[in-house]
Specification:
Elements lengths: L4 H15 L12 H9 L9 E5 L4 H14 L4 E4 L11 E3 L2 E2 L2 H24 L7 H15 L4 E5 L16 E4 L7 H4 L3 H8 L8 E4 L4 H13 L3 E4 L5 E8 L2 E7 L4 E7 L4 H17 L8 H9 L8 E4 L3 E5 L4 H14 L4 E6 L7 H8 L5 E4 L10 H12 L4 E3 L3 H14 L6 E6 L2 H10 L5
Helix pairs in contact: 1-4, 2-4, 2-5, 3-9, 3-10, 4-5, 7-8, 11-12, 12-13
Length: 451
C-alpha cells in the first residue's frame, strides 16, 4: 500500500492524465507515435532482451509463468501485462511485484516532457495524442531500462504487429492459442487475426507457438520463413506429456525442447493452464538456449510459485467463489472444461457481465453446460452491456427460470450466494464470476483481494 499522501495525490494525477487519453480498446494501425517517443528516450526497449507474448487467450497466464521461471533461475525480471484487475501498477512488475509508487512517479517525471513533445508533433500533423496504452508501454520500457532488468517479459495489448509493444524486438516470440476476438480491429477471420499476431516474430528470433487451428498455423509458419525465424511448435517440439488433478492445482509432466520434467506442481487449474505451462517452459528454454536441459528442481520451483490472478482464482470459501476473466467464447469454453475437470460442485451459480463489443451469446452458450443458474450483471465500464439486454440473451440460452438480473454487482453476488443456500447443497455449491476482466477486478475489489 502507498502510505505517503503526497504520492497518492501524484499517482491520482498520473492516472487522471492517462485515463483522459485515447482509450486502450481503440487501436490505430501505426507505430509512429510510440516509436517517436521511444526514440526520444533513447530506445529503452533495446537495453535488455525481450520475450514477447501474444495470442487470443492465455497471454497473461503464460507471461506470468515465463517470468516466474526466469526469476527462479536467478534473473532480475520485468513483466508488462494488461489489462489490470484492481491497480494499474499491476501492469508493470519487477521480480514479481507491482512497480513501487516512487519508481513509477520518477519514471513519469522523466517521460512527461517527451510525451508532450510527441503529442504536440502529432497534433501539428493532424493526429491524436499518445494513447493510454502507448504511454503505459513507454513507462514500462523506461522503468525496466532504469532498473535495469536482465530480461523483460512483455505481453501484447491487442493484436501484435501494430501493438505499441512491437517497437521492441523480442528474441523469443510466444504465440498462445488464437481465436476470434477484437474482430473490428484485427479482422473477422482466423487468418487475418493470426497474421496480425504473427507480426511480433522478428528476424532471427525464436517463435514458440501453441497448438493452433490449421489456418492460423499456416499463417504463422509463413511468417517464420519470411523473417528466417526458428520455430518450436506445441505437439511437435514440446508439450504436456501427462497431467493429473491435485489439491490446489495439478501435477504435470512437461516435455520441453531439451528434456522432460516430471512431478511439476502447478497451482493453477485446467488443462489450458497445463498447456500454457508447456508453452512457458519452451519459451524459457529457447531464451536460455545452449545451456542444455534446465535444472529440474529450478523448473519445479518456478512453476510452484506461479500465479495468475483472476484466472480460476478462488477468492472466498463457504460458499466457494471463483473469479475468471474469460471474456470471449474461446476462453469460456476452456473455463467450462476446467470447472468440470478440476472442481466437484453439486451446484454452480454464475455471475456474468460482459462488455458490449463482446460475443455475449457465444460466451453464455459455452458456460451453459457448467452453470445451474445465472445472475447477469454489469461491469463498471462505460463499455458494459446493460444487464437487461444480457438477461434477454441469457434467457435464450438458459431459459427464463434459470436467469436472474441484478445490475449492481454487490446485489448480484448476494443473489448468487442466496441461490447456493436455497439449493440445499451449500457445502458443495459455488459461485463463478466471469465474462469480463473489468467484472473480475470489480469482484476482487469487493471481496477484499489484494492487487
Amino acid at each position: 500500500m502507498i502510505s505517503d499522501a503526497v504520492d497518492e495525490a501524484r499517482l491520482a494525477g498520473l492516472w487522471a492524465e492517462l485515463e483522459a487519453r485515447w482509450p486502450e480498446n481503440i487501436i490505430e494501425p501505426t507505430l509512429a507515435r510510440i516509436a517517436a517517443l521511444t526514440d526520444l528516450l533513447g530506445t529503452p526497449q533495446a537495453a535488455y532482451p525481450v520475450i514477447h507474448v501474444t495470442g487470443t487467450n492465455g497471454k497473461s497466464s503464460t507471461a506470468r509463468m515465463i517470468e516466474s521461471l526466469l526469476r527462479s533461475y536467478g534473473l532480475r525480471t520485468g513483466l508488462f501485462t494488461s489489462p489490470h484487475l484492481v491497480d494499474a501498477r499491476e501492469r508493470i512488475c519487477f521480480d514479481g511485484e507491482p512497480v513501487a509508487a516512487d519508481r513509477l512517479l520518477a519514471t513519469w517525471e522523466e517521460l512527461a516532457p517527451y510525451v508532450a513533445v510527441v503529442d504536440a508533433n502529432s497534433a501539428r500533423d493532424g493526429g491524436v495524442p499518445l494513447s493510454y496504452f502507448e504511454v503505459m508501454t513507454a513507462l514500462a520500457f523506461a522503468a525496466f531500462a532504469d532498473a535495469p532488468v536482465d530480461v523483460a517479459v512483455v505481453e501484447v495489448g491487442l493484436g501484435g504487429g501494430w501493438d505499441s509493444t512491437n517497437v521492441a524486438d523480442g528474441v523469443v516470440a510466444v504465440i498462445t492459442p488464437i481465436g476470434l476476438d477484437h474482430r473490428d480491429y484485427l479482422g473477422d477471420t482466423i487468418e487475418l487475426i493470426a497474421a496480425e499476431k504473427a507480426g511480433i516474430i522478428k528476424p532471427g528470433s525464436i517463435a514458440v507457438v501453441a497448438e493452433q487451428e490449421l489456418a492460423a498455423a499456416e499463417v504463422i509458419l509463413r511468417r517464420t520463413v519470411e523473417v528466417d525465424a526458428v520455430v518450436a511448435r506445441e505437439g511437435l517440439e514440446f508439450g504436456v506429456a501427462a497431467r493429473g488433478v491435485a489439491v490446489g492445482g495439478q501435477v504435470l509432466s512437461l516435455r520441453g525442447l531439451n528434456a522432460t520434467y516430471d512431478e511439476v506442481f502447478l497451482p493453477l487449474f485446467g488443462e489450458h493452464q497445463a498447456r500454457n505451462a508447456a508453452l512457458a517452459l519452451a519459451a524459457v528454454e529457447a531464451f536460455l538456449g545452449g545451456v542444455g536441459p534446465l535444472d529440474a528442481d529450478v523448473v519445479r520451483a518456478g512453476f510452484a510459485t506461479a500465479t495468475s490472478p483472476g484466472r480460476l482464482e478462488v477468492v472466498r470459501r463457504s460458499p466457494t467463489v471463483i473469479v475468471d476473466a474469460a471474456h470471449n467464447p474461446h476462453g469460456a469454453v476452456a473455463l467450462a472444461r476446467a470447472i468440470d475437470d478440476s472442481f466437484d460442485f453439486t451446484s454452480l451459480v454464475g455471475v456474468v457481465g460482459v462488455l458490449a463489443d463482446k460475443d455475449a451469446l457465444g460466451i453464455l452458450t459455452a458456460l451453459e453446460t457448467c452453470l445451474h443458474s445465472i445472475v447477469v450483471t454489469q461491469p463498471s465500464s462505460p463499455r458494459a452491456l446493460d444487464a437487461d439486454t444480457l438477461g434477454a440473451i441469457a434467457e435464450e440460452v438458459f431459459g427464463v427460470d434459470r436467469v436472474f438480473v441484478e445490475p449492481d454487482l454487490t446485489d448480484a453476488l448476494d443473489r448468487a450466494i442466496a441461490l447456493t443456500e436455497e439449493s440445499g447443497e451449500y457445502g458443495g455449491a459455488g459461485v463463478l464470476v466471469t465474462g469480463s476482466v473489468v467484472l473480475v477486478g470489480d469482484a476482487r475489489r469487493l471481496l477484499g483481494r489484494p492487487a
